[in-house]
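[09:14] KT: can someone run the structure on this one? pasting the chain below
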Amino acid sequence: MAVKRIPFAGWENNLRLSNGHAELIVTLDVGPRVISYRTAGGENVFRMFDEQLGGRGEAKWLPRGGHRFWLAPEDPVLSYIPDNGPVAHCEVSTFEVEMENPPNEQMPIRKRLSVALDPQSNRVRVMHRAENRGDRPWRCATWGLSVMRPGGLEIIPLPPPGSWPRDLLPNRNLVLWPYTDLCDPRWHWGRCFITLRQENAPPTKLGLLHREGWVAYYCRRSLFVKAIEFDPQAIYPDGGCNFETFTNPEMLELEALGPLVELAPGESTGHLETWTLRENVDPPPANDDALGDWLAEAGLLA
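[09:31] RB: done, structure tokens below
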């Protein structure tokens, strides 16, 4: 059976999607949230906060871990409405389920998270869709945040380098938060890649108008790859970010964002991201050129 209801991490009601290549666990007592993603026999690549597992009905929002569905820009209402109650769900097909977080008086936006596991691989398609069920417009964007376990290295590809005077126009957009220190040694600003190490250090964050289509996170010989959509005609939140990353002493987040829209009553918006996992991967090199070769061997670069 590809989809099965199981107890997990203290919650009685969860859905497990499995196909012999990978396993996903989606919570039903809280959420919508993908709390675990792993290959068959592998470890969960997501961070879980043990002291928050199994809880429900709390008055305040809790991170819990896993992959969650927020709305941007970051805001006490859009982002931090508690998702501590049960969600509706349906089985769309043999390997696809959809969870729904109903609207409420404070935020009348219905969130639907669709998770589809490829029958023949560990590839996962994750669709985030927000629908305005209220009577006034809401300015927002869908936001998918994957909370990665600690101790790893994030890899962000940059556009191909150019040269002066041939290339006169900019080809990358970088957005910084007030607490981001560019001298922080966790960051490495390479010619072809930005890397960020998750360590026991204060929070740091950046955002990009990311045209390269993917980011990756390496931890304990596993390489998690997140494919990210880019629409050149769209306006994105936070000064033009379809990708953001945040880390603190406990975890690192890979965050994909959809277009920023004025969502009229009855309208919907969304974004798609795709996940894959590679196991038993040797540690990445520190050298920028060697990192490109390493990624090519992993099948990420042509």
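[09:33] KT: thanks! The mean pLDDT is 96.
[09:34] RB: yep, looked fine to me
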